[in-house]
Amino acid sequence: MSTGLILGIESSCDETAAAVVRRGTETLSNVVASQIAIHTPYGGVVPELASREHLRNIVPVVRAAIAEAGITLQDLDAIAVTEGPGLAGALLVGITYAKSLAFALNKPLIAVNHLEGHIHAVLLEQAELAEEPVSLPALALVVSGGHTHLYLARRNGDHWYYRNVGHTVDDAAGEAFDKVAKLLGLGYPGGPWIDALAPHGDPYAVPFSFAQIKPKLHRGETHADNPERPFLFSFSGIKTAVLRYVQTHDLFPSIEVRRSALAQISQARAADALPFCDQETLNLIASFQRAVVDDLRRKTFQAAEAFDAASILISGGVAANRELRVRFTAEAAEHSLPIAFPSLALSTDNAAMVAAAAWPKLMDGQYAPAELSAEPSLALGR
Ligand code: KG4
Ligand code: ZN
């Protein structure tokens, strides 16, 4: 008899995660073992260390997810695992474990695209809150440390379709947060630090501008005239602009003071950095965040209009950003468009989103092949 229970496993980057979700709409457990402390000294994810930590964590994390859900492995209907995109060695740990479990239990294995998982994090929580089903097509912005993508999402029965209508041509938005935080002597990952410090600065103090990367549109043509043209983001320029500001305003000495002060504090947080940030630095942080959020907001709403989206979904680690939530919510209200964000816990990487995305695939009979392997550059949609 079907229980509707799916065990999701996620190991694409620096979180080892497992969760049990019923019918894509009810979270029974959601366990995440973060590796932040391991990678912090390096200011970024070290792939070899990530694989090693996944190996160490995968068994206890899955056991904890099953125990917290109050079920046994036999109760599961299927095992779902992230197939990609992500770090090859990291993905392989989750995939190998999920495959063995599915084989041993004689249960179907379902492969999930990490980016589709992020989109389903929002859908899962909307269902849990018993909100109206999300109006489709939805324009989904997936914005994290590795990705900045716009998708048009629609469904036909249990089959979801994604069309990729925008992407970054260089760094992801989260990567810009991480690199700027590192440059300024703040902690890792940088997003939450910048988020916490930005309200103390003047967001209009430093006039950052984005070089508009235009796909080759013909004269007078807009995206609406030719929807095949993608919306393009670029976040490497602003990172360089922050570096140039630091150089020309001679901020390196104060950065070094901050860096070494924070290094003395075990498990330092953004509040610990505040006394070591002068007003000029806080203004720089606030202006950087405003510029990135504005650029994301402008293009997301342009794309929603161009593709006549009925709602907007925001997900991925950067969706946790408070200024982003406030500005996107205000603009959605102006456009009378419904907008949804995941809770903070489901914004960053987790396995509930993987189990939720797998449910329609199980219903649709989309099982993973026995030779399933890691797909580090897996794309979503066409
Ligand atoms: O989705 P995620 O956990 O992993 C990837 O798939 O990349 O996203 C992590 C990213 C990091 O770049 C982190 O700095 C960023 O999300 N992030 C934030 C915030 N919380 C996490 N960026 C801005 N503001 C935040 N509050
Ligand atoms: Zn992610």
Give a summary of the structure in a few sentences.
With 382 residues, the chain is of the alpha/beta class. The protein is built from 13 helices and eleven strands.
Describe this structure as you would to a colleague:
The protein has 382 residues and is α/β, with parallel strands linked by helices. The chain folds into 2 domains: 5-134 and 345-363, ATPase, nucleotide binding domain (Nucleotidyltransferase, domain 5), CATH 3.30.420; 166-337, ATPase, nucleotide binding domain (Nucleotidyltransferase, domain 5). It contains 13 helices and 11 strands. The chain has a 6-stranded mixed β-sheet with strand order 9-8-7-6-10-11, with helices on both faces. Strands 3-2-1-4-5 form a 5-stranded mixed β-sheet, sandwiched between helices. A hairpin with a 2-residue loop joins β7 and β8. α2 (47-69) packs parallel to α3 and α5 (173-183) packs parallel to α7. The chain is globular, with a radius of gyration of 21 Å. The protein starts with a strand and ends in a 19-residue tail after the last helix. The mean pLDDT is 94. It binds 5'-O-[(R)-(carboxyoxy)(hydroxy)phosphoryl]adenosine and zinc ion (ZN). Zinc ion binds at residues 114, 118, 144, 316, 349.
CATH architecture of the largest domain: 2-Layer Sandwich
The major beta sheet can be summarized as: 6 strands, mixed
End-to-end Cα distance: 36 Å
* Major β-sheet strand ordering: 9-8-7-6-10-11
